[in-house]
Design brief:
α1 packs antiparallel against α3. By secondary structure, the protein is an alpha+beta fold. The chain has one domain. A two-stranded antiparallel ribbon has the order 1-2. The chain has a two-stranded antiparallel ribbon with strand order 3-4. It contains three helices and four strands; from the N terminus they run αβαβββα. The protein starts with a helix and ends with a helix.
Length: about 140
């Protein structure tokens, strides 16, 4: 694997984890949103990651080196777990029995996911910086 390819893989990981952290921030910001533009409470959103697609020629070259193409966010899906039902008869979104459907966002789950995503983000930055240092040291050889 070349150093430029190593940089590209680290950058793809950084970009993918940035998207994941933005979704987590959005989930936390909407933890009490009971009515969205689409109707109903906010649904937790999750980033689905996959290997970055590469062209056939690039794939042949990388197959000899046994190297992948990095990572990308393939899809953003809504968590289909049930909403939390809370008894709040005075709430404007309460049903006839006085229950309100709250988003399916759990703060502790979001915080754990945020810590995991931030660690992956930091690991990719560390790998990027190490590769950059190797490139700089290579140019210094006399």
């Amino acid at each position: 694997m070349g150093l430029n390819q190593a940089l590209d893989i680290s950058v793809s990981g950084i970009s993918a984890e940035r998207v994941a952290m933005e979704l987590i921030a959005s989930n936390i910001a909407n933890i009490n949103t009971t009515r969205t533009a689409f109707g109903g409470p906010y649904r937790r959103r999750i980033a689905v990651m996959g290997e970055e697609p590469v062209s056939f020629d690039t794939y042949l070259v990388r197959a000899q080196e046994q190297v992948g193409g990095g990572v990308e966010v393939v899809d953003i899906v809504e968590d289909q777990s049930p909403f939390q039902r809370v008894y709040k008869p005075g709430h404007p979104d309460a049903d006839a029995q006085g229950f309100v459907d709250l988003p399916n966002v759990d703060l502790s789950t979001e915080m754990v996911d945020m810590m995991y995503a931030s660690r992956l983000y930091e690991a990719n930055i560390t790998a990027f910086n190490a590769t950059k240092k190797m490139m700089q040291d290579t140019l210094q050889i006399q």
